[in-house]
Amino acid sequence: MLRFALGALLIVMLARAFWKVVDGVVEGATGRSRGGRAAQTPTRLVRDPVCGTYIVPNPSLSVVRGGATVYFCSDRCLQSYRTR
After folding, report:
1. Higher confidence at residue 84 or residue 46?
2. Is 35 left (phi over 0), alpha (psi -120 to 50) or beta?
3. Are 69 and 63 in contact (CB under 8 A)?
4. Which has the closest alpha carbon to 78: 66, 67, 65?
């Protein structure tokens, strides 16, 4: 009886793993998640010109110079850029 229960549990676990792999492949191929929502779009990162850290531009400190917006990771980098 114990051997049957363990065998059944193993079959269920293998079936679940198989379907997770299939769902992942389908999701990757179509770009849609199981709930029908589109996959998230990647976030564009910008590089801080002072220290080289990559940051998300929206919540960052920024300065417009020469018609282009320059983003900074910290106030220290912003002040260092302004003193150049």
Report:
1. 46
2. alpha
3. yes
4. 65
Q: Residue 40: what residue type? A: Q
Angle at alpha carbon of residue 45, lines to 44 and 49, rounded to 5°: 145
Asked if the model's pLDDT at residue 22 lies above 80, the reply is: yes
DSSP track, 45-80: -EE-TTT--EE-STTSEEEEETTEEEEESSHHHHHH
Burial of 28 (0-12, 13-18, 19+ CB in 10 A): exposed
Q: Is the pTM of this model over 0.70?
A: no
pLDDT bracket for residue 1 (50, 70, 90): confident
Listed in sequence order, the residues at least 6 apart from 31 whose beta carbon sits closer than 8 Å to its beta carbon are 38, 39
pLDDT at 21 (0 to 100) = 93
